[in-house]
Amino acid sequence: MLRSSSTTVKSLPLKKRLCFLLKLVCFVSSVFIFCEFLIYYVVIFQCRWPELKGEADMDKKENSAAVLKAIILADTHLLGEIKGHWLDKLRREWQMERSFQTALRLLQPDIVFILGDVFDEGKWSSPQAWADDVRRFQKMFKYPVSTELVVIVGNHDIGFHYEMTTYKVNRFEKVFNFTSGKLITRKGINFVVVNSVAMEGDGCAVCHTSETKLVALSHKLNCSQQKPNHSNKRCSDVEKLPASEPILLQHYPLYRKSDAECHGEDSAPPEEKNIPFKEKYDVLSQEASQKLMWWFHPRLILSGHTHSACEVLHAGKIPEISVPSFSWRNRNNPSFIMGSITPTDFSLQKCFLPYESRVFTLYCAAGALLVILILAHFQLLTPPFYFAQRLISKHKAV
């Protein structure tokens, strides 16, 4: 009887220690699960599809059939084998994968556009490295049958103009079914895909092929927008397309002097806004920009490349939205654009992803609380009231 009671007494501290250890594990696990999984649901759940004019008066079934719901993101920059540290790759790819998959699950878009620079080292990656990068991309950005993914080429995918080769362009086109001058028509809405790296204007093989396709597509679209009673011999044998004014999708922005006129919390930092842009490097040349405007008369232009947000008006009426980078390696506050689009109208809304600084703050706060709990458990922390009581008693004795 005595031996049994003594065994129980000895086992009490062990049970307390195991219970405390279990509580610590639960605490750490909860913080980790929230910061690495649940936080994406909490943040993206707050995003809402923008409403179009008159959309509130439309029937829900009619609205879902008429409106195309599109997500637009840019500059994922999947790290490669040369510059990418394994830990950096693991962290960034997990963040983007969780954000993308959560957005698909909660928002259920009809189509997703990625505006170039999918990879960071596509411009110089070997065939084996390219295959590995593609495999990782397909795992991160997998999508259901109900959603379509359209990927635009960027300078990091095939190189700047002086690095661009037919081999690199074909390699990208084979994987992503990308062709410059390609028309994508969904629900009567025309999207024109542009290889902006090939808009150099120097007559190179890739540039010439790209511009030829764009000119031919421009002719088709312009003929389709003419009134039925308008006679034009040049359009008599042209395939008729939906009469909707097109939306341009490209990597480089059209020409602008700098980001000085760009505003918003995800625009360029103040110290970078007034730095002049270099034509054919930061933005398209004035000549190439004017060509695209003449050819297509677009109602909206969507671009990436600068990693920062910007909205500008060309010719005083045509809006261009520069979409910021989707990667936390480039920004503390990545985001994507949500668009509700019809053949005659569109409405855009930005959806911000979790701020990385806030995630780190959560980890630091949780770490500090964890240290306090451990010290308190082992009675290594002097209670403040006890310390104050000692000071008061000493003061009275004096």
UniProtKB/TrEMBL annotation:
One of its GO terms (cellular component) is endoplasmic reticulum-Golgi intermediate compartment membrane. Metallophosphoesterase that catalyzes the removal of a side-chain ethanolamine-phosphate (EtNP) from the second mannose of the GPI-anchor protein intermediate. Participates in the glycan remodeling steps of GPI-anchor maturation to allow an efficient transport of GPI-anchor proteins from the endoplasmic reticulum to the Golgi. Residues 69-308 form the Calcineurin-like phosphoesterase domain. SUPFAM superfamilies: Metallo-dependent phosphatases (SSF56300). It is found in: Endoplasmic reticulum-Golgi intermediate compartment membrane. CDD domains: MPP_MPPE1 (cd08165). Belongs to the metallophosphoesterase superfamily. MPPE1 family. It comes from Steatornis caripensis. The keyword Membrane applies. The keyword Ligase does not apply. This is Metallophosphoesterase 1. Its main location: endoplasmic reticulum. The chain crosses the membrane at residues 20-43, 360-381. It is a multi-pass membrane protein. One of its GO terms (biological process) is GPI anchor biosynthetic process. Its cofactor is Mn(2+). Coiled coil: none annotated. Keywords: ER-Golgi transport, GPI-anchor biosynthesis, Hydrolase, Manganese, Membrane, Metal-binding, Transmembrane, Transmembrane helix, Transport. The gene is Mppe1. InterPro entries: Calcineurin-like_PHP, Metallo-depent_PP-like, MPP_MPPE1, PGAP5/Cdc1/Ted1. GO terms for molecular function: metal ion binding; phosphoric diester hydrolase activity.
